[in-house]
Amino acid sequence: MGRCGFAWHIQGIMSRSLLHFRATLVLLALSTVLCLLITWKHQVLTCLVLAILQYQALWSLGVRARWQQYYTIGLAMSILEALCVRRGIWAYARPFLGGVPLWLPFAWANVCVFVRMI
């Protein structure tokens, strides 16, 4: 394999890796939205599914060390939403604590993973 063949081989590996990365991000985004649309009334089930989706995405992408950061941001965003709910800006149909659903930190954590990986 000549010099040009080797570069083409490396480029093929890189493009497959990039394709896998993008596909994982798209699947995370779509599955998070579908999970919320289908299971939002069952808060514990929604939390479990969102946590599994995030773990699967992080494991697939090879980024396992930042899960604490994602859940901290998810919790902070949920507190911010609770303040907005308290002020009457919006409301949730099935609130759990502070006017927000139990699954909200998990949803924000998945959004954080998605945005961070872009």
Relevant terms:
118 residues; mainly alpha; 4 helices; 76% helix
Describe this structure in words.
The protein is mainly alpha-helical and 118 residues long. It has one domain (3-117). The protein has 4 helices and no strands. The protein has helices spanning 3-39, 43-61, 67-86, 104-117. The radius of gyration is 18 Å and the shape is elongated. The protein starts with a helix and ends with a helix.
Chain-wise SSE layout:
Layout: H1 3-39, H2 43-61, H3 67-86, H4 104-117
Helix pairs in contact: 1-2, 1-4, 2-4, 3-4
Summarize this entry quickly.
Helices cover 76% and strands 0% of the residues.
Q: Rg from C-alpha positions?
A: 18 Å
Oligomer: single chain
Strand content: under 5%
Please provide the count of β strands: 0
Helix count equals 4
